[in-house]
Amino acid sequence: MQKLHGIVAAGHPETARAGLKMLELGGNAFDAAVASMLAACVAEPGLTSLAGGGFLLAHTDTNQNILFDFFTQTPRTKRPKSQVNFYPVDVNFGGSIQEFHIGLGSMAVPGVAAGVFHVHRTLGTLPLRVVAEPAIHLARNGVEINRFQAYTLEQILQSILLTSPEGRQIYAPRDTILKAGERLVMTDWAKTLAGLLEAGVREFYEGEIAEKLVGDCREGGGYLTREDLKNYRVIERNPLCINYRGKQILTNPPPSSGGTLIGFALELLSEVDLAGVEFGSARHLKLLAAVMKLTNEARRHGFDDRLHDDDIAGVFLSEENCRPYQSQLRDAVNKWGSTTHISVLDSDGNAASVTTSNGEGSGYIIPGTGIMVNNMLGEEDLNPHGFHNWPEDVRISSMMAPTMILDGTRLEMVMGSGGSNRIRTAILQAISNHLDFGMSVGEAVESPRVHWESDRFDLEPGFDRAAVEQIRGAIAGEIRQWRERNMFFGGVHAAIARPDGTLSGAGDIRRDGASLAI
């Protein structure tokens, strides 16, 4: 196999192509990741935005590991609910309907713009104007809407994207939402990014852009203030490290919850010898259902309420806390007889795993910028204490969990996923597929998935029908088998580095993902 200089796996070919261009120009994995982040705002506009939030997990060629947290922040002050512009919309995934809330009152302090500049300044090597050029070119000249983006825009997010005149101008320039094969052009967005390259990112948080956003919130029913934007900062954290099957799993630490919940599920799985278990068998499906169910139970008992406590991950993943759930799992075994992700590797040993999201979008586009602001205060998953009950001025917890697998100090795999509350179960299964069942990166990503939530076990097509029938009655909950693979089950984009230095990757077919190499 030919040795590659680098690989990018992402949710859209243009997203991956922007990163690959940086590797061709001699940039490193972090230049590529930043270029892909920016391009995704144009190629995957229903999933991410400069006014969204995200995380980038970095592994450098000197074995340094950093988690860059540029997720959204809650506002510093509240206003009476009667003055808040905040209302529900239903999002239909084809087999499941979720309710989200949008409006000016759904917007949290954005972080992606700050994250782009911070990560590049810290680890990038190419000039930022070079790194941003593919995204600006895409926005000016347009990107062709593919099948998945057409599905996202028309079937899922249309009511949000077309809320404002600015949104209709971008996404329905001829009075109907853009279809597959048509071109999405974001001229204002291109001008805005070019302006930020000249003026610096503080223009977004303290300049004219900030004034427009804050003014509309003040007059129209949003929470965001000048102080919220001015005081936003990117946080560098130590990644959460989990040992599993002799490997080290690096992922997102608290106050985000996804990485720790993946760690808890892996602690449970480590109690089971999967050597004699066939993938997709009734025993395997029962095991996944039990692990996901027990993880949800553990989450409800002392985790969500303590996400900002010191060493909550250590306490939650401790032997004392895991032991009762491991015991339940052993007993069970004995009885059985609208987010995106980018993974980048370069040949020097640098790696970036970056997940960004705009939620579903608030429906509000900052005038003259083409940038839709997030609706993180309107996502039920991110507001476990109820809407408008968030603590002021704290980093919002997220399921997003950019993840890496290390074999000693050698980087083995980079992965992550979009998918709201399904992120953690999608990543869990990709890890297990690779480490427990010896699957290639493509097989680990493409194999059918399951998800347990609210006493319901969702299964993608592809599992043996007899195995599915065997678990009916053995699982205390509804079993629902989907007719086709769906973005509901996440979008894992992954890359792997083999011991001989060769690289390979996979973009998730559920989201028309792509993997490109040089």
The computed structural class is alpha+beta
Distance between the termini: 13 Å
Structural shape: globular
Low-confidence stretches: none
How much helical structure, as a percent, in the residues? 25-40%
User: Beta-strand percentage?
Assistant: 15-25%
Give short descriptive properties of this protein:
18 helices, six-stranded antiparallel β-sheet, globular, single chain, 518 residues
Summarize the structure.
The protein has 518 residues and is α+β, with helices and mostly antiparallel strands. It is 37% helix and 20% strand.
Overall description:
It contains 18 helices and 24 strands. It is of the alpha+beta class and 518 residues long. Strands 8-3-2-12-11-1-24 form a 7-stranded antiparallel beta sheet, with helices on one face. A hairpin with a 2-residue loop joins strand 15 and strand 16. Helix 2 packs parallel to helix 4. The longest helix has 19 residues. The two termini are 13 Å apart.
Compile the SSE list and pairings.
Blueprint: E1 6-10, H1 13-24, H2 29-43, E2 53-59, E3 65-70, E4 87-92, E5 97-102, H3 112-123, H4 128-141, E6 143-144, H5 147-156, H6 158-161, H7 165-171, E7 183-184, H8 187-199, H9 202-206, H10 208-220, H11 226-230, E8 235-237, E9 240-244, E10 247-251, H12 258-269, H13 282-300, H14 312-316, H15 319-335, E11 340-346, E12 351-357, E13 365-366, E14 371-372, E15 403-407, E16 410-415, E17 417-418, H16 423-437, H17 441-446, E18 450-453, E19 456-459, H18 465-471, E20 478-481, E21 491-492, E22 494-497, E23 503-506, E24 514-517
Parallel strand pairs: 19-20
Antiparallel strand pairs: 1-11, 1-24, 2-3, 2-12, 3-8, 4-5, 6-7, 9-10, 10-15, 11-12, 13-14, 15-16, 16-22, 17-21, 18-19, 22-23
